[in-house]
Amino acid sequence: MSAVGTAPPVQPRAPGSSTTASERGSLTIANGVVARIAARAATEARGVGGSAHRLFGVPVGAERAGRDVQVEATVNGATVALDVRLSMTYPMPVRRVAEDVRHHLSGRVRALTGLIVSRVEITVTALHPQAATTGRVR
């Protein structure tokens, strides 16, 4: 039987000393986590709304600006590919809004995860009049 508390103390590293990656451990960010971060980041872009969930390619529920943006993320090492389904406010220019979303997603995902975004595929599922994004006044 061994006595409690007899393990040798862990020696702290000196400030500025380097460690190898294997000594630090590894970090894996799940596809779903990156997808959630990207979905939230997409809604930060001007003129972007959500998309209805789909089952076998058929929308389930209404396409509303207030829904969540749908994102699928595929992490491969230090890179991630994003497939985004969203709606946009009409009459904003679709191509410009899509480029803004692409740029914003790349920056936010990299800042929050450290992953490099290799591609962002965007599918615009609906256009909503500007009044639809402000909500209903009672």
UniProtKB/TrEMBL annotation:
Chain intervals with Polar residues compositional bias: 16-25
Highest taxon, organism lineage: Bacteria
Sequence segments annotated as region (Disordered): 1-25
A Pfam family per the record: Asp23
PANTHER family in the record: ASP23_GLS24 FAMILY ENVELOPE STRESS RESPONSE PROTEIN (PTHR34297:SF2), HYPOTHETICAL CYTOSOLIC PROTEIN-RELATED (PTHR34297)
Family the UniProt entry places it in: Belongs to the asp23 family.
Protein name: Putative alkaline shock family protein YloU
Source organism (scientific name): Actinokineospora auranticolor
